[in-house]
Amino acid sequence: MAPLASLLQIARRRLALPHLSALAVGALLICSAPLATAQQMRVAVVDTQRAVMETEDGLRAQATLKKLFDKRQRELDQKQKDLQKEREDLEKNRAQINTEAMTKRVETWQREMAQVQAVFVEYNKELQQKQNELTQPIVQKTVGIIRRLATQEGYDVVLERQAATYFRSDLDLTDKVITMYNRGESAPAPAAAEKPKK
What is the pTM of this model? Predict the structure, then answer.
C-alpha cells in the first residue's frame, strides 16, 4: 500500500506543479502589466471652458454677447420689477377694489407675467444659440491646440479638469493652452493625401 500511496502523491505533485506554475506566471503577467503601463502613461488635465473663455477671442465673444443682450436684459428686469410692484399693489389694495375689477387686474397681471416668462425663455434660447455660434470656432481651435500640446509633450491622455478628483498642479495644461492660442499657434493642418503615382 505504501508504494501505491507514494505513487499517487508523486503523480499529484507532477500534475499540480505545471498547473500551479502556469497560474503563477499568468498572475505575475496580469499584475505586472498594468503597473508597467501605468508607470509609462502620461496624463494631464485641462479646464477647456476656462481655456476657451480666457483666450483673447473668448473674451471678445463674451463682450459681444454682453453688448447684444444687456439692453434686452435691462428691459426684462424692468418689466419684472413693474409686475412685482403691480402684484404688491394688488395685494395691498385687495379690500378696496371691487371683485370684478380685481379679477380683471389679476388676469391682466397673469397674462403679462406669462408673456415676460415666454420672452425670458426665448431670450435664453437666443443667447445660447449666439454663444454657441461665437464660441464653436474657439472650442475647435482650443481642442486642436490641446491635441498638439499632448503630442508634443508626450501625454497619452488629457482629461477634462472637472473629471479629475485629484491631480498635481503641474499637470494642468490650461494656462499653456491659453498662451498658445493667444500667440496664434494652432493645430497642424491634416496632411494632404498623397496621390497615387501613375
Answer: 0.60
Q: Distance between CA atoms of 42 and 40, rounded to whole angstroms?
A: 6
Q: What is the CATH number of the domain that holds 134?
A: 3.30.910.20
Closest among 183, 164, 160 to 173, alpha carbons compared: 160
Q: Tell me how many domains the chain contains.
A: 1
81: in domain: yes
Count of CB atoms situated within 10 Å of the CB of 116:
16
Which residues, listed in sequence order, are joined to residue 186 by a DSSP beta bridge?
none
Task: For residue range 37-51, list pLDDT tens digits in order.
Answer: 546 889 999 999 999
* Confidence bin at 182 (pLDDT 50/70/90): very high
Domain with 91 in it = 42-182
